Fold these 3 entries.
Entry 1:
Amino acid sequence: MTSTIAKIYIDNLRHNLNLIRSKINKNAKMCVAVKADAYGHGAVECAKVALECGAEYLAIARVCEGVELRNAGITAKLLMLSLANPQEMEELVRTEITPLVFDSEYAELVAEAAKKAGKAEYAVHLAVDTGMGRIGCLPEEAGAVAKKITGLGLKFEGICTHFAAADSENPSDREYTEFQFKRFMEAVENVKKAGIDPGIRHCANSALTLDKPEYHLDMCRPGIIVYGYYPDTLDREYFARKGENIELKPVMALCTKVVAVRKFTEGRSISYGRTWTCGGETDIGVLPIGYADGLFRRFARAGGNSEDLKVAINGTEYPVRGRICMDQCMVDLGKDSAVERFTEAVIFGPEESGALQTAQKIADQTGTISYEVTCGVGKRVPRVFLTSLTR
Ligand SMILES: *Cc1c(COP(=O)(O)O)cnc(C)c1O
C-alpha cells in the first residue's frame, strides 16, 4: 500500500447516517448526496452504507456518477442535481437517472431520449428557483412547466428547491430561508392548481434536516453531515443550546508517512521559492503528499495562509515548512527528533485516526469549507475502507 491514503471509517459513516435518519420525520424519505465521489469519500461504498441505513434515493451531479453506481450493482433511485447536455441524454435514460427539469427545452430532450429508449412515464422532478439563483423555474411558472412535463408523457414524480443560506444563524439569512420556503409552497400550490399531483416535495439540505423538521416535507437531502461535518455555524454547540445532542463523527482521515528524516542546519532553505530557512539545527521530515493529493498550497503558511499547517505524528503536532509541492512537502520535527522513518503522519480525520484536527479546522484557517477540503482529496489517493472488524 502506498503511503498517502484516505482512511474511510465506515462505522462513523453508519453512525452519522443512523443519527440523521432518526432526526428525519418518520414519513419523510432520506436522499443521501453521494455526488462528487461522496464528497471525496468513495461513492460506491458510501452509497451501499447509505442504502443499508435507510436511504431511498441517492443524489448525484453527473451522468458518469450514476453509471459508476449502476456498474457497482446499485439499483436505488438516483436523483441528478445538476443538468446534463444533449449528448448525455441517451446515457442518462439508459442509466435510469431521475433528472431535475425546469424548462420546456430540457423536458423535451428527456422525453425524446425516453421515447427512443422505449421507456414510458419516465420520472422527473421539477426544480424551482425560490432564491438560490442556480437552476429551477420561478414559482409562478411551476404550473405551466408541470403541464408541459406531463404533456410530454413524462412522470411528474416530485418537486424541489434548494436554499441559499440555510446554514446561517444570521437573522436576515433566516428570513431569506423562510421567504424561500414560502415561495416553494406557492410553487407546489401552482402545480396542484394545474391539476397535477406534486408528488415528493423536497427542499431540506443538511442544515434544515437537522435544524427544521417542518421543512422535511416528503424527503430530506443531507450531504455534508453524512460525512461528519456540521453545516457552517450550526455546530455541535448550536444544537446543544437547542437542547439537542448531535454528535457527528468525521468519516475521512487523510494519512501519509514520514518517508525520510533529514538533519538540517542553520541557513538551509526548504522547498520552492526558498520561503523558509532553518534558524538552527532541526530534523526535517519528508512527506509524500502534495497539492496533487489535495494538500493545497494555500493550506501552508508559505501558500499565503497566516497559520502553519500542522501534521500529527505519534500524538504531537508538527508544522509544515516551505511551500507544498505537487507530490511532497516537508515538516519540522525539531532538533534531535525521536520520530522514526516510515512513521504515519495524519493531516486530518476523526480522533481515532490519530489526527489532532479535522477538515473543518483546515477549512476555517484557509477561508474555505469542509466540503472543499474532503472533495479536494486527489484521485490517486486510495480510499481504504475500515470497519471495527478490519481496524
Ligand atoms: C449538494 C446538495 C445538497 C446537499 O447539500 P449539503 O449542504 O451537503 O447538505 C442538497 N441539495 C442540493 C440541490 C445539492 O446540490
Entry 2:
Amino acid sequence: MTSIEHNLQQVRERIAAAAARCGRAPEEITLLAVSKTKPVSAVEEAIAAGQRAFGENYVQEGVEKVTTLAAHPELQWHFIGPLQSNKSRQVAEHFDWCHTVDRQRIAQRLNDQRPTHLPPLNVLIQVNISDENSKSGIMLEALPTLAQEISALPQLRLRGLMAIPAPEQDYDRQLAVCLQMAAAFRALQQNYPDVDTLSLGMSDDMEAAIAAGSTMVRIGTAVFGARDYARTSQQ
Ligand SMILES: *Cc1c(COP(=O)(O)O)cnc(C)c1O
C-alpha cells in the first residue's frame, strides 16, 4: 500500500467515525482531496486508491493537472483558491466546480466564459464567517442578494456555500462557527432546491464541521502529506 492510499483510508475512517458520532451516514460527506503543490504522480496515486474529487488553489497549476489527466473523465475538479478576474476564464473552461465566488462581477465573468458545450459550472458562495483578517468571502448579510444574482445566470449552478473559518484549536469554538454556516446553508436550501453542498472542514476541524452538517470536507495535508511551498512559484 502506498502512503497516499494509506492516508486516504485513514481520512475516510475519520469521516466515517465523525459521521457515526452524530448519526449521519458517511456517504453524505464527500472527501475533496486538496492536491495543491503536489505533483500529478501524487494525484495518480490517489486515483488508483479510488479518489475522484480533487481541489486546486492555483489556476495555472490546476489547469495543468486537469489537462494532463484528461484521460480520466470520471474525475471532478474543484477550484478552491482566491479567484482573480483575469484568471476566471481558465476556471470556467477547465473546472467542474468553483468554491470561491464572492462577488457578482466574478460570477458574471464565469457565466459568460463557461463554454456552452459544458454543463453549467457548479458554484459555491464563499462566506467570511469568522476571519477578520481575510479579504475573501462575503458577509452573511450579503448572501441573499448574491445568491439571487447567481441563480439568474444560466451557465452557473448554485450548489451551496463554502467557508474557511479562522484557525481555532478548541472544538467547541470550531463547532460554534460551523453551526452558523450550517444555519445559513439550511436557509439557502429553502429558496434554492439545487443547493446541496456545504464545503466546510479541513484537516484540523473536520470533526466539528461534520457534526455541524458539512457535506464536503477539503483535506490536503492528511492525504498528501505536508506541502513544500518552495517547489511552486505561483502566488
Ligand atoms: C489548502 C486548503 C485546504 C486543505 O488544507 P489542509 O490543512 O492541508 O487539509 C482546504 N481548503 C482550502 C481552501 C485550502 O486552501
Entry 3:
Amino acid sequence: MSALNHVSKFLFLFLLELLCFVQLSSLIVTAISTIKNGEGSSTLVSDGGKFTLGFFSPITNKTYLGIWYTEDTTTKVWVANRDTPIPNNSGQLQVNATGIVMITYDEGNSIPLNSDEGSGNVTATLLDSGNFVVTDLKYNRVLWESFDFPTDTLLPGMRLGMDFKSGRNYSLTSWLSVSYPSSGAFSLTWEPSGDSGELVIRQRGQIYWSSGAFVDQGFEHMPSLKSPSLGYQYNVSHVSNHDGNYISFNVTNQVVARWQLYYDGLIVDGGNRVLDDFSDFCYGYPENNGCAHRALPKCRGSNEKFVKLRGDFTKGKGKHYDNYDDNSSLSFSDCMEKCWISCDCVGWTVSSNGTGCATWSGDWKFSNSTDGVVKYVLVSESPKKTNIWLIGIVIPVVVLLAVVCFWYLRRKWIRSQDCLTAERRRREQFLHELISPVKCDDGSELEDSGREGHDLRFFGYASIMAATENFSSGNKLGQGGFGPVYKGKLIDGREVAVKKLSNTSGQGIVEFKNELILIAKLQHLNLVRVLGCCIHGEEEKMLVYEYMPNKSLDFFLFDPMRKEILDWKKRLNIIEGVAQGLLYLHRYSRFRVIHRDLKASNILLDEKMNPKISDFGMARIFGQNTIEANTERVVGTYGYMSPEYAMEGQFSIKSDVFSFGVLILEIVSGRKNTSFYHLDRPLNLIGYAWELWKEGVALELKDPSLKDSIVANQFHRCVHVGLLCVQENATDRPTMSDVIAMLSNETMPLPSPKQPAFFTGRGTTERNQFDSPSTNNLTISIMEAR
Ligand SMILES: *[C@@H]1O[C@H](CO)[C@@H](O)[C@H](O)[C@H]1NC(C)=O
Ligand SMILES: *[C@@H]1O[C@H](CO)[C@@H](O)[C@H](O)[C@H]1NC(C)=O
Ligand SMILES: *[C@@H]1O[C@H](CO)[C@@H](O)[C@H](O)[C@H]1NC(C)=O
Ligand SMILES: *[C@@H]1O[C@H](CO)[C@@H](O)[C@H](O)[C@H]1NC(C)=O
Ligand SMILES: *[C@@H]1O[C@H](CO)[C@@H](O)[C@H](O)[C@H]1NC(C)=O
Ligand SMILES: *[C@@H]1O[C@H](CO)[C@@H](O)[C@H](O)[C@H]1NC(C)=O
Ligand SMILES: *[C@@H]1O[C@H](CO)[C@@H](O)[C@H](O)[C@H]1NC(C)=O
Ligand SMILES: *[C@@H]1O[C@H](CO)[C@@H](O)[C@H](O)[C@H]1NC(C)=O
Ligand SMILES: *[C@@H]1O[C@H](CO)[C@@H](O)[C@H](O)[C@H]1NC(C)=O
Ligand SMILES: *[C@@H]1O[C@H](CO)[C@@H](O)[C@H](O)[C@H]1NC(C)=O
C-alpha cells in the first residue's frame, strides 16, 4: 500500500489509532478541531498542499468537518455535516476498508457520508482540486467524492446543474450566517432553457436574482465575469448531452478560483469580486440587474430601504412593540424579509451569533450612539420632484451642455490627437470609466455620478494643490506607510487629508482604479472614509480622505500629558471600535482585506475620540501588485508584526489579529511595545504582560494615568484577550469575531493564553515578501501505512 502514500498524505498523531488502523486494516483519519484543542488535532493536506481537510468549530459546541484553503483557513470550500454538527471536539473521520466514510463522535455516534461499499481495497485522497475522493483500487472506481455534495462553493471542475447518470441536480446553498455553516436562505442553481440556460438565486424558494442567458462565455447580469481588468480569464463551459446539462468553470492563471454563494446572496469569486451585479440587496433595486421583480408590500414605498446604523430605539408615544424570534434557522436576509413585509416594522437586527431576529414595530425613535448595537433602520428617502421643472428646464440645459461639451471635447481631441501618447489615452479611458458621463470640465473638480454604486469623487490636481497650499510642509500631517499625508481645505471649506502615494508601487492606472473602487466600497463607522482620488500625469496618485481632527491614537496614548484624556471608558471604546472595523475588513466587507499594518498611529480619532482605522486597503493595493511583481518591500512595523509574517512573509487575518493584540496591550498599558525597557524583564511589552499574567498580577500592567477610572474585570479581560491574540501559533489566535464575542460577553469563559511570541526586534524593515507563497504552516508528519 505504499502507492497510497504517493496519492495522499494522512496525518496520524495518536499512535494508538495508528495501531487500530493497522489491525483493522482500514483507513482512519482522525482530526480534532485545532481551534478548541491544539493537542492531538490532525488534518489531511492535498498532494500539492493547496487544500486541507479537517475539523473546525466556528461556533461553541458545534464542530464541522470541512475542506479549506491551506493558505486561507477562513475560507471553507466544503462542509460535510453542515446540518448535523458534532457537539464537542470528539469527532473523527473514518474511512473503513470497504470505503464507507463516516464521521464518528462520542463513541458510537456516527454520521455516514456514503453507502456504496467497495471491494476491500480502497483509498481516500484529498486531491489538489479540493475534491475528497474515495476510490476502489481493485475496480478503479470512484465510490464517493465530495464534489458530488457541494455546499456553498463551486470549485473548478465542479458541476452546477443536472447529471443524468447519477440523477443528481447539483446546486449551492449559502451558509446561514457568516460563521454558521448550516443551510441558509439562498440557493444557486443552473436552470436550462433551450440550448442555453441561466443561473438563478432563490431566497427560501422564491426567485431572487437571475443571471440572464449564458451566451458567448458570459451572462448578462454578471458583467465582471468578462471584465478585462480582472487579470484572469474565466472559461465557463456548458455541457448539454446525454450525460447531463450543467455548467462548470475554470480560470487562467489564478490560484484560488471559486464561486462562493455568500449568506447574503452575493456570489463572490476567488479574487473577492462580487459576480452578481447588484450592490447590497436585491430589494426595490431601481435598475434591472437581474433582481427579480417582486411586488412591493402595499405599505412599503419604493423610496424606503434599510440603513445600517449603530444606536438604540427608544419608545415613542404611540403604539409600539418589539419582538425577538430565537428561531436559529433565521438569519440576516430572513430577518430583513420579515421586517420588510410587516407593515409597521421600522427596524431589525440579528443577534450576535448570527441567527434569530429582533424587530421593532410601531412608534420607535432611533438615536445614533456609538455604544449601541448595529441595527437596520427603515428610512425613506424624500421622493425626487419629477415635474415640469425637470422636463422644461433641466433637460434642455443638460442637452445644451452635452452639445457644448461634445463640441469642446472634439475640438480638443483634434488639436491634441497628434501628441496623445498611448499612456494618456489610457488615462482618458480611465477618467471616462470612472466618471461617466464625462463632464465638461477643465480640471477644477469633477464629480462622480454615483451610478456605479460608490460615491467616489475625482479631484482635479489644481484643487488639491490649492487645498494643500502646494503640499506645503506646514500642512504635512505625517508620513503614512505609502507616502506623506497633508491636510487640505477644499473650496467648499471641507477639511480633508490627502495622501500622496509614492511612485514605487509601480501600479498601472487600471489596477489603481480597481483598488480605489474597492476601498471606496469599504464603508464602516470605524474605517476612515476615502472621499476620492486625484491623478496627475502617469506617476502621481493621491487619495483624499475625511479629515480627523484628533490625529491618531499614538499622539495621545504615548504622550505623558495627553494620555490623561483617554480614560478607561474611552480606551475600551477604542478597543471595541478597532475590533469592529477590523472584523468588517476581515469578514463583513465583500472583499476580504488584510490590513497588515495595524498600529496606534494608524488608528485615527474623530472629534468624539471614536477610532477609525486608516491605511486600510493599502495593504491590498500593494499586495496584489506584489503577488505579480514579487519584489516590493514588506510593509508593516516591527513590534506589531506577527512572527510568521515578519520571519516568513506569511500573512493572514491572524497576523492582523496579532497586531490587534499588541494594540490592546499598548492601549491598556499606555506603553509602546517596541520602546520598552524594564530591568530584569523581557525586552518588550508582550513579554512583560505575559510575565505579569503568569504571576497573576496583570493589573500591574495598568497605565498609571488611568487612575480610578478603571474597571478591574474589564481590564483583566482586555489583557486576557490581548494575550490570546499574540499567541505564537497563528491557529491558536482567535478570529476577530471571536475577539468581539469575548470582549462583549463578560461571562463567556476564555481559554488560557499560551506563550506569546516574544518579538524583540525594533524599527521598520525592508525585505522581500511572498518568498514562498505555498509554504504550509501546519506541522506535517507523514506516516507510511504498510
Ligand atoms: C457547550 O456544551 C457544554 C457541555 O455540553 C455546556 O455545558 C455548555 O453550556 C455549552 N455551551 C454553549 C455555548 O452552548
Ligand atoms: C462529548 O459530549 C458528550 C455529551 O454530549 C460526552 O458524553 C462526551 O464524553 C464528550 N466527549 C468529549 C471528548 O468531550
Ligand atoms: C464498513 O462500514 C460499513 C458500515 O458500517 C459496514 O457495513 C462494513 O462492513 C464495514 N467494512 C469493514 C471492512 O469493516
Ligand atoms: C489494491 O489495488 C492496487 C491496484 O490494483 C494493487 O496494486 C494493490 O496490490 C491492491 N492491494 C491489496 C491489498 O489487494
Ligand atoms: C484549470 O486551468 C488550469 C490552468 O489554467 C489547469 O491546470 C487545471 O487543470 C484546470 N482545471 C480544470 C478542472 O479544468
Ligand atoms: C435543477 O434544479 C433546479 C432548481 O430546483 C430546477 O429549476 C432545474 O430545472 C433542475 N434541473 C433539472 C434538469 O431538472
Ligand atoms: C475551456 O474549457 C474547455 C473544457 O474544459 C476546453 O475544452 C476549452 O479548450 C477551454 N477554452 C479555453 C479558451 O481555454
Ligand atoms: C424557523 O425558521 C425556518 C425558516 O424560515 C422555518 O422553516 C421554521 O418553520 C421555523 N421554525 C419555527 C419553530 O418557527
Ligand atoms: C443565538 O443567541 C441567542 C441569544 O442571543 C440564543 O437564544 C440562541 O439560542 C443562539 N443560537 C445558537 C444556535 O447558539
Ligand atoms: C445617524 O447617523 C446617520 C449616518 O451617520 C445619519 O445619516 C443620520 O442622520 C443620523 N441620525 C440621527 C438621528 O442623528
